[in-house]
Fold each of these.
Amino acid sequence: MTYEEMDAVALLKADHRKVEDIFAAFEKATSSSKKQKLAHEACLELKVHTTIEEEIFYPACRGQIEEDLLNEAYVEHDSAKLLINEIEAASPEDDFYDAKVKVLSEMIEHHVEEEEKRAEGMFAQARAAGLDMDKLADDMRARKMTAMEDFQSGKPAEPRTLQGGDEESAMSDEPLAPGAAPTA
């Protein structure tokens, strides 16, 4: 199946596998330059991934799946975003750099597990709710391209549920307009 043929869940799972591979490569890397390149690659992929989930997939799930699961996903994203911003601003020579990347990897591993659980996971619940996975995938692919451009230019990850965030957008069941940023 090609990337263009994937439905929303397959697309999100493909993103998960890509980031897992980047973190695995980071664990094996020995040079500072290689570690920094891989860490930044993981951070970029995660910023884009959280954007398409938060702007398109999660709003479609609001009211269709367990609310606690969805709310926890936003908070998990926000915790990861804080680490992502710190990692991007740091250097492999800095104290705790490897530890921060490792903790981010573990946080993402937990988050992915919550989304992908067979019966009670977010993806399974979204499928059971009958969401239009093909339409969501089309919207996510389009937003992914613009988000990649935004974040490659150095835009930081912006938490929504933490102090100063945009909790209202996180509670919405309407997707954000393409290219619209949450208000903070």
Amino acid sequence: MTTTACESADAGPAPAATLDQDTLAELYRLHAPYLQRALLRMANGDRGKAEDILQETFLRAWQNPKALARGPEHARPWLFTVARRIAIDHFRMAAARVKEVGGEAQEERVAARDPYEEVLAAHDMGRALRELPPLQREVLVHLHYHDHTAARTGRVLGVPTGTVKSRNFYAVRALAPLLERRGLAPVNHGSTRSR
């Protein structure tokens, strides 16, 4: 009896629950491209760093099945929050590391950049975009986020190019005060001129 009790005590705690392989694959399929794109921007195009953060994000998802109980299709906000926190930690650790400096003068050194402000600005931009009417928002996303031409956007959305240009004009006009309130654009105290 004593041996059995010792053996079970030595076995340690039971392993924590993890996501099953199919759910993790579906999670990756649905959300990895969007996360990768956002992480590339946060990492200033450093694909290796973006992929490291992406991998760590999905590792945490695998280790936290309870956080994803609503299903893979509803996991994007949670994944973006985790990825943002991991990115901030990575950049802060990199900024805190001592770097060897040669004979360059103090003024020649480039200050370590903390992307935290960019992450917050991107989050605020997303919230501002959600306040726009859906038709205007989708035109802005196609033209400015996906860098599509007006003609291509029109084909994708099934509307004439002129409609795309008109929606873009009014969307940009509506977005400006939303961004000003969030401190993401300079405040324009003058009257708005119409062209």
